[in-house]
Amino acid sequence: MPRHAHPCSLLADVLSYPGAALAEDAAACAAALAPAHPAAAERLARFAAFAREVEPSVAEEAYTCAFDVSPLTSPYVGDQLFGPTRERALLLSGLRQLQRQAGVEGGAELPDHVCEVLRLLAAPLPQEIRDDLAREGLAPAARRMLAVLDEAHHPWADVLAAVVAVGEAREEATP
Fold first, then answer.
1. 117 within 8 A of 102, measured Cβ to Cβ
2. I want to staple 165 with a disulfide (CB 3.0 to 4.6 A). Which of 40, 65, 97, 172 is the partner?
3. Helical pair 22-33 and 38-53, crossing angle rounded to 10 deg
């Protein structure tokens, strides 16, 4: 993972379905976030330790339990904010358009997946659009997921805490 990568892109890599480099990615992301977000970096470092200590299948099972089983922690911003409504459909359409405008190739997930939104936030978009997406979309959705995972003492809560910290920093930077 390149050290110069955007923090949102680094977080997207960590929050994606776990791969062989999960612990390395989490540690690198923690190091990149440490200067601006020390509390988030601390939680990511704790998550990196978890990822180093467990078998890959355990990390995969924890990910599936955190994000694929419970609708309360659905990793889709539109699900968190709107549920299965027309508003979510409009959000999906708008995000797909933003991806095209920014030259971001959509992944296998829908464009409102937290990882896709994080990658979009790292793209060359006008600052106002980026800040609105973080403030009105990512931050509130991530806070909802974090509340559930923190209460359950789930290891993936540490990653969501970092997402919230980055989103909230964007909120504070916006008047």
1. no
2. 40
3. 170
**Residue listed under structure tokens 């409009």:** 90
24 closest CA partner among 34, 36, 10, 38: 10
In the numeric block, which tokens belong to residue 163? 């997402």
Answer whether 164's CB lies under 8 Å from 146's CB: yes
At 94-115, the pLDDT tens digits run: 999 999 999 998 888 999 999 9
- Going from the C-alpha of 109 to that of each of 4, 28, 106, 151, the distances in angstroms are 25, 24, 8, 27
126: burial class by Cβ within 10 Å (0-12, 13-18, 19+)? exposed
Which residues are CB-neighbours of 154 under 8 A, at least 6 positions away? Answer: 62, 65, 66
Cα angle: 60, vertex 65, 66; to 5 degrees: 95
DSSP state of 37: -
Q: Is the pTM of the predicted complex or chain greater than 0.85?
A: yes
Rounded Cα–Cα distance for residues 150 and 62 (Å): 14
The sign of the CA dihedral 102, 97, 66, 40 is positive
Backbone φ, ψ for residue 168 (5° rounding): -70, -35
Q: What's the DSSP call for residue 106?
A: P
Residue 84, SS3 per DSSP: coil
